[in-house]
Structures are given as structure tokens and as C-alpha cells.
Amino acid sequence: MAKPVVFVLDPYHEDAVALLQSTEWVDLVLPSDPRRASWHRDADGVILRSETRLTADDFAAAAKLRIVVKQGVGVDNIDLDAARRAGVAVHNTPALNSEAVAEFSLALAFSLARRVAEVDRRVRAGEAVRRSETLGLSLFRKTVGVVGMGNIGRVAARKWIGACEASVVGYDPVAPADAWSDLPHRRVATLPELLEVSDVVTLHVPLLPSTRGMIGAKELAAMKDNAILVNAARGGVVDEKALLEELKKGRLWGAVLDAMEVEPPTLEAYGDGLLAMDNVIMTPHIGASTRENQSNSGIAVVKTLLAVLEGKADVPGKLV
Ligand SMILES: O=C(O)[C@H](O)COP(=O)(O)O
């Protein structure tokens, strides 16, 4: 019998690739292989991250495809309805990325609060930066509003409490009533209630029709003076034009974005806008990108894929 053909569509950690390479019963095609171009024709299974999009056309064309596994949690790059129609199973690896993404969201907030990127730029440009001109913002015992009370938001909340003795406010219209029952926090029923009190607003929601543009002009205007916005979730959640307009008023402390509409962020897209602002930090969607996480998550993805191809029942992370 022919071996199932597995395509790795986006770059994966070497540990995950090694596990696939040592699995003799699959035929493996890596992203650098010229055969990648023919994945629609040949793939029984594919693994990807958030770089490749899988559209309805892809699913319609992928004649043999049985299983797609997405590393991490967000699946906005995959047309799940089309997968369902085509009878293709889609899995992700929820929770595994949480520590890395949450850690990075705090790192971004601290960097902005203490103006690390801005001052580093000035030092490198040869400026003798005076300490008296670089006062930062302390985050100790401030109020942190966590939008999205899922796995990542939960870990972020725990870290804020541990690192800063933060008062955490959570907002999530779909999380179960007992979410975070083990964490000290105040849950609010509406986003305005969270925005009104938060010194840091940190976004940990998936990109869905209901969350697209959820932070727009009205929400930004409702944030406290000197508040920080952290988006390590998905670009479409924040209205970037409205953010730029609000930042130009100089009322907010600033914004840190690891997710944006144009990824990776370019000078062409943002050079005259958000990247012209000293109080913006932009990083190219690297929240999940630690050595440890990429190895662990990548291996989990491969194990999920192999289990489905072997016909095992109840393989975790099944979305479709
Ligand atoms: O969806 C996720 O969990 C994160 O955004 C990570 O995506 P990535 O694997 O493309 O970094």
C-alpha cells in the first residue's frame, strides 16, 4: 500500500521535522521541497502554522486530503466550513502556546512601559540620553484588563498577578461562568466596564466575525489616560487606523502589537503610520516563538497528525 504523503506547509521546528523523518510509514515533503507546489494533488495530511492560508478553493482542490493540523490555537487562516464540507479533519494544539504567548504579552507591555525600544533606538543613534527624559510607567499594582478568558488570557492573568500584584479584570462573553475560579479577578459583563478601569488592556481573543474590529475608535477613546494596549492575538481585532488617530492625541501611553493586519509588518504598510510613533512597538507575530514552545508544540502537532493517519480514535484538538 502507498505511504500517506504528509506536507509541511510552513517552517517547523527541527525536532518536529526529525520526528516525521523518523516515521518510516509516511512520505514527507518539507516546505523547501519543489514537490510542495503539488500538495493539492498529493497530500493525505498537511501541517501548517499561521503563514499559509487554506481557503475553500484549497479544500476543493485537495482530492486526497484527510487531515490538517495547525500548530497553536488560532485557526482564522483555515476555512473550517470548507474543511467540513470536504470531509477533512482539522485539529489544533490548544493550550500549548499559552505560556510563550502570555509571557511575550507581558514582555511587550513592560518594554513599552519603560520605553525600552525607544531609548535603545536613541542610544544606538548616538544620542546621550538623559535619564531624566526617559521616565517610564510602573506597572506594579495596576489594573490589567484581560480581554478573552481562554487559555492564553488565563496564563497572562496569572503572570500579571505574580509579577506585579495586578488587579485583574476579565471580560469574555462566551467563557464558562466558572472560568478562572482559581484566580483572583473581577469579571465584567461588558467591554466598556473593562476599558474604563484598566491601566493595561491585553487582548487574547481569536479572530472571529464577533471580534473583528472589537477595539475601534469608541473603545480606544474609552481607555484610561496613559493606558497601554497589548495585542498579541490577531491583527483584525484592532482597528489600526483608529489606533493611530488615538495615539496621535497623546493621551494613551502607547500600544504594543505582535499581531497586525499586515504580517510581517513592513515600512510600506506602517512606516508613515504606527511605526512613526515612538510609543508603538511592533513585532512580527513571534509570541509563540520560543525554542521550547516550538519544539513542544511542533512535536504535539506531528503526534496528532500521525495518530489521525493511523486511524486512532479521540485524537485531541479536533475542531472539524
Ligand atoms: O495561533 C497561535 O496559537 C499563534 O498565533 C501562533 O501561531 P504561529 O504558530 O504561526 O506562530
From TrEMBL:
Query: Which keywords accompany this UniProt record?
Result: Acetylation, NAD, Oxidoreductase, Phosphoprotein
What stretches pass through the bilayer? none
Which Gene3D superfamilies does the annotation name? Answer: NAD(P)-binding Rossmann-like Domain
InterPro entries noted in UniProt: D-isomer_2_OHA_DH_cat_dom (IPR006139), D-isomer_DH_CS (IPR029753), D-isomer_DH_CS1 (IPR029752), D-isomer_DH_NAD-bd (IPR006140), NAD(P)-bd_dom_sf (IPR036291)
- Write down a Pfam family by its short name: 2-Hacid_dh_C
Q: Which residues form the D-isomer specific 2-hydroxyacid dehydrogenase NAD-binding domain?
A: 106-287
- Asked if the keyword Cell membrane belongs to this entry, the reply reads no
What is known about its subunit structure? Homotetramer.
Name of the featured protein: D-3-phosphoglycerate dehydrogenase
Question: Which species does this protein come from?
Answer: Thyridium curvatum
